[in-house]
């Protein structure tokens, strides 16, 4: 079995277990552990517990790998593989009891800088929906074993999704972008969970997605899902504080890119 397939199996197994833990903790009640950059940027006890579980599982099986998680210090490994982990992506949804949250785990080769790595495997577990999205580089993307394919929708018929950063000073810019995109598309969603947005693009439930300022753990697994499902993912303005990620089928991706390039 290739390394990527092995990593994919491990990511899937751990994402499933971590998803079950997140869901279990949600039924027991949410404990807000802290707010981070702003009031909307929260972390719960469950975020930390789930990240610890993932970290411990990986440490046991692959002690030489690096780790980059949303809730703890990064660890550089000796193997050249780094695990990029969001223990609960969609934490605000989670805290409010909205089921659109997930556990996102990716194995990448290279430095944990998103533009210098290559993702080998990824898994996104959405436990409330009992869905597990997986992707392995060069092999494809699946939802519970069913192969995924992005849509070939035209921009005019596209259902899109986006997200907004936590910093209120960025909201005007994000909303201006929404105003430019809306006329081209069928409609737009803001689900509050970037990895799920990307998984849904891979699954053909959405035709495209864009968001500024995502962190590596928000998109590492989801971006691989989209490309392995035949879609296109790009990151631009990578030197800025808020790089733009665009994902979708070829035509929708191209149209979104053109709109962003003319951004004022
Ligand atoms: C957030 C969600 C949200 C997106 C934010 C992310 P978190 O991740 O994915 O949809 O708009 O940019 O930070 O904080 O819930 O892990």
UniProtKB/TrEMBL annotation:
Keyword tRNA processing: no
Molecular-function GO terms, alphabetical: inositol monophosphate 1-phosphatase activity; metal ion binding
A single BP term in Gene Ontology: inositol metabolic process
Parts of the chain that traverse the membrane: none
Residues involved in Mg(2+) binding: 70, 86, 88-89, 218
One Pfam family from the record: Inositol_P
UniProt catalytic activity: a myo-inositol phosphate + H2O = myo-inositol + phosphate
Cofactor(s), names only, from the UniProt record: Mg(2+)
Database matches in Gene3D superfamilies: 3.40.190.80, Fructose-1,6-Bisphosphatase, subunit A, domain 1
Primary enzyme class: hydrolase
Alphabetized PROSITE patterns for the sequence: IMP_1, IMP_2
E.C. number(s) listed in UniProt: 3.1.3.25
Keywords per UniProt: Hydrolase, Magnesium, Metal-binding
Nucleotide-binding is among the record's keywords: no
Family that this chain belongs to: Belongs to the inositol monophosphatase superfamily.
Name assigned to this protein: Inositol-1-monophosphatase
Organism whose genome encodes this protein: Microbacterium saperdae
